[in-house]
Design a protein that fits this description.
Helices cover 81% and strands 0% of the residues. The protein is mostly helical. It folds into three domains: 95 residues, Serine Threonine Protein Phosphatase 5, Tetratricopeptide repeat (Alpha Horseshoe); 84 residues, Alpha Horseshoe (Serine Threonine Protein Phosphatase 5, Tetratricopeptide repeat); 62 residues. The longest helix is centred in the last third of the chain and has 27 residues. The relative contact order is 0.04.
């Protein structure tokens, strides 16, 4: 009976999180901890709530409390990994994933996060392998397929990227995160109309998400052709290795210094002009609150 009662309370807290009633979920989780202070899952659930509230330090604290009571609590490790990742502490996230995968080797989300970490350091082939592993476990996951579409675009496999984007949308047209990854994918393919369309859909589904709002504003800015022209050298540099970038800049600075200075000035003017135009288009002349 006690286990049944706890299970019902677990489900109640998870339901409140789905409804985004985070304060009610917090109160329920705290009450559960008071009633069952040695229940590791109760602490993990509170960490899960804090994660959704973007209280990342609290999420780490409560996941640690859970792991002190049960070092193999899968939810606690999932919370811990996501908290570190969201804090952009990728080293700690990777270390936590290594431990979490020892306990739960078939959790596809860990492969997904590792792929993102690899993409951030331009290890695109390694990231693709990790996404394929995630899809072996969860082959119909639209988010993983959308990320793979983005990854293929990073690898300049544009045809495959577009096929994967279509597949992701066949599976899920109600996920803001799917649309955001597909927007990144379209941008890498230089398909700026599709890029903006994907971000419009993402912000329609979740207008309060800070990252999506920022990405949407950037998509509007990049839809000005003259701004895209100024971005072309930067896009070329993204495809080069670090030493190639350094050598190129040294050579260009020596041979074309006046033009480089002129380009930098024009880029700054274009960046802030288009940013102002986007601001006026979205917010009018009032300041953002």
């Amino acid at each position: 009976m006690i286990e049944d009662a706890s299970s019902q309370r677990y489900e109640r807290i998870q339901q409140l999180v789905q409804w985004k009633k985070y304060q009610d979920a917090t109160n329920e989780a705290m009450a559960l901890i008071r009633d069952t202070p040695e229940d590791a899952y109760a602490y993990a659930l509170l960490g899960h709530v804090c994660l959704h509230m973007e209280q990342l330090d609290q999420a780490l604290h409560w996941s640690e409390e859970s792991l002190q009571r049960n070092p193999e609590n899968e939810l606690a490790w999932l919370v811990r990994v996501n908290a570190y990742y969201t804090k952009q502490n990728f080293k700690a996230a990777a270390e936590a994933i290594a431990e979490a995968q020892r306990i739960d080797p078939y959790e596809p989300h860990y492969f997904f996060l590792l792929a993102n970490i690899n993409n951030k350091v331009r290890k695109y082939a390694e990231a693709r392998d990790l996404l394929l592993k995630a899809l072996e476990i969860s082959p119909e996951n639209a988010l993983y397929i959308a990320n793979l579409s983005y990854n293929e675009a990073l690898l300049l496999n544009f045809s495959e990227s577009k096929l994967l984007a279509s597949k992701a949308l066949r599976l899920d047209v109600e996920s803001d995160m799917v649309y955001m990854y597909l927007g990144w994918s379209a941008e890498r393919r230089n398909d700026y109309e599709d890029y903006l369309l994907m971000l419009k859909n993402a912000i329609r589904l979740d207008p309060d998400d800070k990252q999506i709002r920022q990405q949407f504003l950037e998509a509007l800015q990049k839809n000005y052709k003259w701004y895209r022209i100024m971005l072309m050298p930067g896009n070329l540099l993204k495809r080069m290795k670090t030493w190639q970038i350094i050598v190129s800049w040294i050579v260009l600075w020596i041979l074309f210094r006046p033009f480089i200075i002129l380009f930098i000035v024009l880029y700054i003017l274009t960046h802030w002009t288009t940013k102002l135009l986007v601001h006026v288009k979205v917010f009018g002349w009032r300041r953002r609150g």
